[in-house]
Amino acid sequence: MTSEERARTVDGDDGPAIRTVMRAKDVVDAYARWAPVYDAVFGPIMEAARKTAVAALPAGTERVLEVGVGTGISLPDYPAATRVVGIDLSPDMLEKARRRVAEKRLANVEAIHEMDAARLVFPESAFDAAMAMYVMTVVPDPARVMAEMRRVVRPGGRILVVGHFAADAGPRRLVARALTPFGRLLGWNTTITAATLAALPGTRLLADRPAGLGGFYRLLEFEVVK
Protein backbone atom coordinates (compact mmCIF):
# COMPACT_ATOMS: atom_id res chain seq x y z
CA MET A 1 0.00 0.00 0.00
CA THR A 2 1.29 3.48 -0.76
CA SER A 3 0.99 6.31 1.70
CA GLU A 4 -1.36 8.24 -0.53
CA GLU A 5 -4.29 10.01 1.08
CA ARG A 6 -7.47 7.95 1.07
CA ALA A 7 -9.92 10.55 2.37
CA ARG A 8 -12.80 9.84 0.04
CA THR A 9 -16.17 8.14 -0.23
CA VAL A 10 -16.08 4.49 -1.24
CA ASP A 11 -19.05 3.81 -3.47
CA GLY A 12 -20.14 2.11 -6.68
CA ASP A 13 -19.38 -1.57 -7.26
CA ASP A 14 -18.47 -2.17 -3.64
CA GLY A 15 -21.87 -1.03 -2.42
CA PRO A 16 -22.86 1.66 0.09
CA ALA A 17 -20.48 4.52 0.71
CA ILE A 18 -18.08 4.36 3.62
CA ARG A 19 -16.46 7.68 4.49
CA THR A 20 -12.88 7.33 5.69
CA VAL A 21 -10.38 9.97 6.75
CA MET A 22 -7.40 7.70 7.26
CA ARG A 23 -4.23 7.10 5.29
CA ALA A 24 -2.06 4.01 4.96
CA LYS A 25 0.78 5.88 6.64
CA ASP A 26 -1.46 6.59 9.63
CA VAL A 27 -2.06 2.88 10.13
CA VAL A 28 1.61 1.94 9.76
CA ASP A 29 2.70 4.71 12.11
CA ALA A 30 0.07 3.80 14.69
CA TYR A 31 1.10 0.17 14.79
CA ALA A 32 4.79 0.99 14.86
CA ARG A 33 3.99 2.68 18.17
CA TRP A 34 1.85 -0.20 19.40
CA ALA A 35 4.07 -3.12 18.32
CA PRO A 36 6.34 -3.23 21.40
CA VAL A 37 3.42 -3.36 23.85
CA TYR A 38 0.54 -4.70 21.76
CA ASP A 39 0.47 -8.23 23.19
CA ALA A 40 0.75 -7.07 26.78
CA VAL A 41 -1.91 -4.36 26.45
CA PHE A 42 -4.44 -6.00 24.13
CA GLY A 43 -3.68 -9.70 24.42
CA PRO A 44 -5.76 -10.44 27.55
CA ILE A 45 -8.53 -8.00 26.61
CA MET A 46 -9.08 -9.53 23.17
CA GLU A 47 -8.34 -13.17 23.96
CA ALA A 48 -11.95 -14.31 24.27
CA ALA A 49 -12.92 -12.69 20.97
CA ARG A 50 -9.94 -14.23 19.16
CA LYS A 51 -10.77 -17.70 20.39
CA THR A 52 -14.47 -17.23 19.57
CA ALA A 53 -13.61 -16.26 16.00
CA VAL A 54 -11.30 -19.21 15.39
CA ALA A 55 -13.83 -21.60 16.92
CA ALA A 56 -16.45 -20.26 14.48
CA LEU A 57 -14.58 -21.63 11.46
CA PRO A 58 -16.67 -24.41 9.92
CA ALA A 59 -15.46 -27.97 10.46
CA GLY A 60 -13.17 -29.04 7.66
CA THR A 61 -11.81 -25.56 6.92
CA GLU A 62 -8.47 -26.32 5.33
CA ARG A 63 -6.93 -22.96 4.43
CA VAL A 64 -7.46 -19.57 6.07
CA LEU A 65 -6.22 -16.09 5.24
CA GLU A 66 -5.82 -13.94 8.32
CA VAL A 67 -5.97 -10.30 7.28
CA GLY A 68 -4.25 -8.02 9.76
CA VAL A 69 -2.39 -10.82 11.49
CA GLY A 70 -0.39 -8.28 13.48
CA THR A 71 1.97 -9.89 15.98
CA GLY A 72 0.49 -13.30 15.20
CA ILE A 73 -1.08 -13.51 18.62
CA SER A 74 -4.01 -15.56 17.26
CA LEU A 75 -1.93 -18.05 15.26
CA PRO A 76 -1.52 -20.63 18.06
CA ASP A 77 -5.33 -20.81 18.36
CA TYR A 78 -5.84 -22.40 14.93
CA PRO A 79 -6.20 -26.18 14.68
CA ALA A 80 -3.00 -27.90 13.56
CA ALA A 81 -4.81 -29.23 10.47
CA THR A 82 -5.79 -25.73 9.32
CA ARG A 83 -3.22 -24.01 7.13
CA VAL A 84 -2.93 -20.29 7.76
CA VAL A 85 -1.50 -17.45 5.71
CA GLY A 86 -1.14 -14.15 7.56
CA ILE A 87 -0.80 -10.67 6.07
CA ASP A 88 -0.35 -7.24 7.57
CA LEU A 89 0.77 -3.77 6.55
CA SER A 90 2.98 -3.18 9.60
CA PRO A 91 6.56 -4.49 9.35
CA ASP A 92 7.02 -3.91 13.08
CA MET A 93 4.08 -6.17 13.93
CA LEU A 94 5.08 -8.79 11.37
CA GLU A 95 8.55 -9.09 12.86
CA LYS A 96 6.92 -10.26 16.07
CA ALA A 97 4.59 -12.60 14.16
CA ARG A 98 7.46 -14.34 12.40
CA ARG A 99 9.31 -14.70 15.69
CA ARG A 100 6.20 -16.25 17.27
CA VAL A 101 5.82 -18.77 14.44
CA ALA A 102 9.44 -19.83 14.82
CA GLU A 103 9.45 -20.00 18.61
CA LYS A 104 6.20 -21.95 18.83
CA ARG A 105 7.02 -24.10 15.78
CA LEU A 106 3.69 -23.44 14.15
CA ALA A 107 4.07 -25.77 11.19
CA ASN A 108 0.55 -25.03 9.92
CA VAL A 109 1.43 -21.38 9.23
CA GLU A 110 2.26 -21.35 5.52
CA ALA A 111 3.54 -17.81 5.26
CA ILE A 112 3.55 -14.33 6.77
CA HIS A 113 3.49 -11.52 4.21
CA GLU A 114 3.72 -7.74 4.33
CA MET A 115 0.78 -6.90 2.10
CA ASP A 116 -1.99 -4.39 1.51
CA ALA A 117 -5.32 -5.92 2.49
CA ALA A 118 -7.00 -3.82 -0.20
CA ARG A 119 -4.73 -5.25 -2.91
CA LEU A 120 -4.25 -8.94 -2.20
CA VAL A 121 -1.93 -10.80 -4.58
CA PHE A 122 -3.68 -14.16 -4.15
CA PRO A 123 -5.78 -15.72 -6.92
CA GLU A 124 -9.55 -16.01 -6.74
CA SER A 125 -11.03 -18.66 -4.45
CA ALA A 126 -7.62 -19.51 -2.96
CA PHE A 127 -8.95 -19.87 0.60
CA ASP A 128 -11.80 -21.56 2.44
CA ALA A 129 -12.10 -18.62 4.81
CA ALA A 130 -10.76 -15.17 5.60
CA MET A 131 -10.36 -13.90 9.14
CA ALA A 132 -10.26 -10.18 9.95
CA MET A 133 -9.78 -9.55 13.66
CA TYR A 134 -9.88 -5.88 14.70
CA VAL A 135 -9.10 -4.89 11.11
CA MET A 136 -12.13 -3.29 9.50
CA THR A 137 -12.01 -0.26 11.80
CA VAL A 138 -8.33 0.45 11.08
CA VAL A 139 -8.05 0.08 7.31
CA PRO A 140 -8.44 3.19 5.12
CA ASP A 141 -10.85 1.47 2.70
CA PRO A 142 -13.11 -1.11 4.43
CA ALA A 143 -15.28 -1.76 1.37
CA ARG A 144 -12.26 -2.53 -0.76
CA VAL A 145 -10.86 -4.90 1.88
CA MET A 146 -14.18 -6.75 2.08
CA ALA A 147 -14.24 -7.01 -1.72
CA GLU A 148 -10.73 -8.45 -1.76
CA MET A 149 -11.51 -11.00 0.94
CA ARG A 150 -14.63 -11.96 -1.00
CA ARG A 151 -12.54 -12.43 -4.14
CA VAL A 152 -9.96 -14.75 -2.59
CA VAL A 153 -12.44 -16.89 -0.62
CA ARG A 154 -14.22 -19.64 -2.52
CA PRO A 155 -18.02 -19.51 -3.00
CA GLY A 156 -19.66 -20.91 0.10
CA GLY A 157 -16.61 -20.05 2.18
CA ARG A 158 -16.61 -17.77 5.21
CA ILE A 159 -15.45 -14.27 6.05
CA LEU A 160 -15.24 -13.74 9.82
CA VAL A 161 -14.94 -10.18 11.09
CA VAL A 162 -14.26 -9.31 14.72
CA GLY A 163 -14.32 -5.80 16.08
CA HIS A 164 -15.99 -3.07 18.06
CA PHE A 165 -18.31 -1.34 15.63
CA ALA A 166 -19.97 2.03 15.93
CA ALA A 167 -23.66 2.10 16.72
CA ASP A 168 -26.04 2.69 13.81
CA ALA A 169 -28.02 5.28 15.74
CA GLY A 170 -28.44 6.91 19.13
CA PRO A 171 -25.95 8.44 21.55
CA ARG A 172 -23.15 5.98 20.81
CA ARG A 173 -23.34 6.96 17.13
CA LEU A 174 -22.96 10.63 18.06
CA VAL A 175 -19.97 9.82 20.27
CA ALA A 176 -18.34 7.88 17.43
CA ARG A 177 -18.72 10.82 15.08
CA ALA A 178 -17.30 13.18 17.71
CA LEU A 179 -14.21 10.97 17.99
CA THR A 180 -13.59 10.88 14.23
CA PRO A 181 -10.92 13.64 14.27
CA PHE A 182 -8.90 11.54 16.70
CA GLY A 183 -9.03 8.42 14.53
CA ARG A 184 -5.72 9.17 12.83
CA LEU A 185 -3.90 9.38 16.16
CA LEU A 186 -5.51 6.19 17.45
CA GLY A 187 -5.11 4.26 14.20
CA TRP A 188 -8.78 3.38 13.86
CA ASN A 189 -11.95 4.54 12.13
CA THR A 190 -14.75 5.47 14.52
CA THR A 191 -17.55 5.42 11.93
CA ILE A 192 -17.72 1.80 10.67
CA THR A 193 -20.89 -0.08 11.62
CA ALA A 194 -21.83 -3.72 11.35
CA ALA A 195 -24.80 -2.78 9.18
CA THR A 196 -22.57 -1.00 6.68
CA LEU A 197 -20.40 -4.07 6.23
CA ALA A 198 -23.43 -6.34 6.01
CA ALA A 199 -24.85 -4.22 3.17
CA LEU A 200 -21.83 -4.74 0.93
CA PRO A 201 -22.45 -7.06 -2.05
CA GLY A 202 -21.24 -10.60 -2.60
CA THR A 203 -21.75 -11.94 0.91
CA ARG A 204 -24.61 -13.03 3.10
CA LEU A 205 -24.56 -12.20 6.81
CA LEU A 206 -25.09 -15.41 8.75
CA ALA A 207 -24.64 -14.15 12.28
CA ASP A 208 -23.86 -11.08 14.35
CA ARG A 209 -23.08 -12.17 17.87
CA PRO A 210 -21.13 -11.13 20.97
CA ALA A 211 -17.49 -12.20 20.93
CA GLY A 212 -15.99 -10.75 24.09
CA LEU A 213 -16.11 -8.17 26.87
CA GLY A 214 -19.82 -8.61 27.37
CA GLY A 215 -20.63 -7.89 23.75
CA PHE A 216 -18.30 -4.91 23.35
CA TYR A 217 -16.58 -6.97 20.66
CA ARG A 218 -18.76 -8.66 18.07
CA LEU A 219 -18.25 -11.43 15.54
CA LEU A 220 -19.82 -11.02 12.10
CA GLU A 221 -20.01 -14.23 10.10
CA PHE A 222 -20.46 -13.91 6.33
CA GLU A 223 -20.93 -16.53 3.63
CA VAL A 224 -19.37 -15.73 0.28
CA VAL A 225 -22.03 -15.92 -2.44
CA LYS A 226 -20.33 -14.04 -5.35
Automatic annotation (TrEMBL):
Domain Methyltransferase type: 65-160
InterPro entries for the chain: Methyltransf_11, Methyltransf_Superfamily, SAM-dependent_MTases_sf
Keyword Transferase assigned: yes
Entry keyword set: Methyltransferase, Transferase
Coiled coil: none
A GO molecular-function annotation: S-adenosylmethionine-dependent methyltransferase activity
GO biological process: methylation
Protein name: Phosphatidylethanolamine N-methyltransferase /phosphatidyl-N-methylethanolamine N-methyltransferase
